[in-house]
Amino acid sequence: MNFVMVSKDVKNAYFSGKSLERDINLEQPRGGLGQLKPGQLMKAKKAVYGFSEAARLFWVALKGHLENDGWVQSRLEPALFFLPDSQSRLVGILVTHVDDVEGGVQQDYVDRAFAKYSQASEYATNRFKEFVFRGREIKQRDRGHVDVSMRNYSLNTKKIQIDRIRRQQLESSLTEEEFNRCINLAQASLVG
């Protein structure tokens, strides 16, 4: 359909969400803030990471911005959106994941497809044809062919040594020692 692959990541996503519907007062950080008196509280206008409603308030705002640009939410999958033209022909499709948006749009509609959304939100990334989305490296070739790989992910995967006899026991559960090796490796990769 001659769609151009698109990837966008909203900068400071939770601050782009709807305003809080409840009063939350915050203490100043250690050392205070220059314009506030010591002990003075701050009132949160937007949800911040860790607030129970933060993700929901962002999602409601994101959905509203997309709908203002003409995107229609799927009735079967709420994270999936379609962009019809004036004759109801499909000219774009995208999926959302938290603060990331990925999809494809016909070249003639790329600017219009996110016009109001772009005015309301700032993007940390705004890429076309070549990007990384949720660990997948995506590259669109000149004729529309799309290559998807996870090369960096696979290169950073650590091997867990299991002796030859255990490898032949395909139906066996991990031993406690093997399980602990997996946990230690996973923890080391998070730190490193």
Short note summarizing the structure:
The chain has 192 residues and is α+β, with helices and mostly antiparallel strands. It contains six helices and eleven strands. It has a six-stranded antiparallel β-sheet, covered by helices on one side. A three-stranded antiparallel β-sheet has the order 9-10-11.
How much of the sequence lies in strands comes to: 25-35%
Principal-axis shape equals flat
Element-by-element helix/strand order: EEEHEEEEHHEEEEHHH
Gyration radius from CA atoms, angstroms: 23 Å
The unreliable regions are: none
**Strand arrangement in the largest pleated sheet:** 4-5-6-7-1-8
Give your account of this protein's structure.
The longest helix is centred in the C-terminal third of the chain and has 16 residues. This protein has about 190 residues and is an alpha+beta fold. A hairpin with a 5-residue loop joins strand 5 and strand 6. The chain folds into 2 domains: about 120 residues, 2-Layer Sandwich (Alpha-Beta Plaits), CATH 3.30.70; about 30 residues, no CATH class. The mean pLDDT is about 80. The protein is flat. It has 6 helices and 11 strands.
